[in-house]
Structures are given as C-alpha cells and as structure tokens.
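Prompt: For my understanding, could you write out one protein's sequence and backbone structure tokens?
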Amino acid sequence: MKLSEHFSLAELCKTNTGIENVPNEAQVENLKRVCRWLECLRKRWNDKYGDGDDPIIINSGFRSEAVNKAVGGVPTSNHLTGCAVDIRCIGMEQALRYAAILLDISDMSREDFDELLIEQKRSVVWIHFAVRPSGNRRRCNFKR
C-alpha cells in the first residue's frame, strides 16, 4: 500500500525485530500525514541539493508496543501512533539541511510539527520527526 507517491506502508512499518508490526486505520492516517511532510522534504532537497531523484530513507516509522519495547523506545513515543519517523542522514551536515528544510516547510505552510530532533549515536546521525493530528509542540533539539 502506498501512503504517498514515494513512501509505502511496508517501508514505514519495517522492523528487524521479527515482531508483527501492523498499524490500525488511525495509525495509517497519521503515517499519511507524516508522508506529506516527507514528500515536501524530498522535493525541496532534490531541487536544491540532490541529484534530482535522491530518496529520503526511513530507518523507523510506526512501531507496535512490542516493537517499541524491543528497540528501547520510550512508552510515550510518537512512533506508537504512527506520528513519527526516523530519517537516515549521511552525516551532520545533511541532518542540519534536512532540519532547515522541515522548519521552512512549517513556516511556509503555517503548520506545526511535534518534534524535530537531530540524534546521534557514535558516528550515526538521523532525524526524528513527528507530526500529530493536533497539539503539536514544535519541539527542536539535538540528542546524543
């Protein structure tokens, strides 16, 4: 099932835990909302920095409670509701550029996001990005 032009349900539910990870209808709708932002990010990245068709790669999207627990996610994670994705980055520079693009999208659309976190563990860098149906906090941070 396609959630948007470039993102599939399977891609946003993949896990290497071996645990079933299937979202319900409300969680799928939340994933579609996040994918609208991802499509804008992909287009703007490719227009300015990419080779014209660079993908946005998702490390983690929806997580069932069992998957979230298995990967050490917090019990209140936006991943549980399908409202969050972790976006793979090739280094800190790409993470900063992705973050700037997402902030621009928010400002231009006048839509808020819930979380925009640049995270790093050793040399691996990713962006945790979340958009809720309502009550978005526009929380930005670096996490190491």
Remarks:
- The chain has one domain: 9-143.
